[in-house]
Amino acid sequence: MLKALLKKQFLELNTFYFQNRKTGKNRSKGGTIGMIVLFVLLFIGIGFSFYGMGSLLADTFIALKLDWLYFAIMGLMALFLGVFGGVFNTYAGLYHAKDNELLLSMPIPPSLILFARMVGVYAMGLLYEAIVFVPAIICYWVKKPLTVLNVLFPFLLVFILGFLVLSLICVLGWVIALISSKLKNKSIITVLISVIFLGAYYFFYFKFNTFLQNIVGNAQHVGDSVRKAYPVYIFGRAAVGEAIPMLATIIAIAVVFALTYFILSKSFIKIVTTKQAEKKTVYNESKSIKTSSAGSALLKKEFKRFLGSPTYMLNTGLGIIILPVLSVAALIKMKDARELIEVGTNMFPELMGLLPIFAVCVICMMLSMNAITAPSISLEGKTIWILQSMPIDPWDILQAKQKMHLYLNAAPAVISATALGFVVGADTYIIVLMNAFALSFVLFSSSFGLFMNLLKPNLVWTNETVPVKQGMSVVVALFGGWLISIVFGFIAYLTRDIIEPRYYLIGVVVVLALTSRFINGWLKTKGTKIFAEL
Predict the structure, then answer these.
(1) Model pTM?
(2) How far is 32 from 21, CA to CA, in rounded Å?
(3) Which residues are paired to 26 by β-bridges?
(4) What are the backbone angles phi and psi of residue 434, rounded to the nearest 5°?
(5) Please, which pLDDT band fits residue 277 given cuts at 50, 70 and 90?
(6) In sequence order, what DSSP letters do the residues of 66-90 get, joined into one string?
(7) What are the φ and ψ backbone dihedral angles of 19, each rounded to 5 degrees?
(8) Under 8 Å CB-to-CB from 406, ≥6 apart: which residues?
(9) With contact defined as beta carbons under 8 Å apart, do 437 and 354 qualify?
């Protein structure tokens, strides 16, 4: 029974290599081999970057006889990446798998189901952890004389550390599952967690070089500090080939894993079978029934679809959060930003008057990332016939999609245009025009996204990731918005001696407004016919 469960689990993990998610059909033998080779090359490339990092650290630490500190630091990095890479798959793969109830209804001990699922999680975490730790080991072997123990122990620690990674991501997934079972809108929680992890990633990414330089420059001090974190110190001693620390590491990780498995086995059934309580509506004759127009109902439907899909929100709405955050950061760091601007304008004085235009062009490039309307028709999928069969004007359906785009993007556009206007030192009139530019671009992008999706719809997807991330309409809306923003900035530069910035901004607003009106005219006439026939 366990063998069958493990086989099923690994088939699920590797489905991507054997099946095209866009069509739902199996890949050809050549296509499968190509996908496997592609990912192998990708992981090798990432491994080389960690090898270079390990080489920088190893040269310093080996010279100072701090070999253990080298493995302690690389082990922590491996642990972090393993947890970071595996935690996103744990909730869906371990606690919220679609076949959990089916398996629990069979004469299979729940402990076996949990164990098989944990093996899959272990394999995923091990893969991410090994990307860091294996290159680190190879780098150490290249720079240090080899012995039996300093070859064998690091190799074994790759797999032993994987159990600690497994324990941590299972606990994190368990916490998320418990919280999620009590919440009404799980999609928003998923998005918030993803945004937090994304922010943490970029924070460490930009600080990483400084972090490495500080470690290398203060190796002895870092070593003294790490010794106080005794488990990390013991792990480093084990990795360089010391038997007693190796035994202690194995025992400690085994205890952590056993405790994790014991706790999860006791709560596994409760977590996977807990259903979110649904609010029941009780009819009351004394109360009047609230009604709304068709347009309001359609708009509400669009918002429910957007807020109910983490994939949709993260891939077409991340800029809604990022733009205001960056704008506030620019205001907080206004002094530094203006000093940087002063350096640039001293080098290129002709750019001084164009700063408001360039600033709003950058905002428009960010707004292009919020291509909410571009996949909105494709996301109706095979159920599009429901909308088509209703006594609703197709133009009302298209307008609801467009209005959601406008409502979600208008506030970030105004906040960012106003904030950057202050940063670049624009006067009130120019800031108003910058806002008009940004809002007219939002209007244009909402119409353009619908236009492209009607021309290039995809209603036969098996995974909503396909229309949201791979749809041709999304690609054109995104890169088309970037191209248009760059062109506006380039034309402003070429005509800087002919047209004043305020008149140029007015001209751009007029062009975008007229273009949006033209596209909306097409949507209302030919576009509605295309929608009705999809």
Answers:
(1) 0.68
(2) 13
(3) 19
(4) -60, -40
(5) very low
(6) -HHHHHHHHHHHHHHHHHHHHHHHH
(7) -135, 135
(8) 442, 443, 446
(9) no
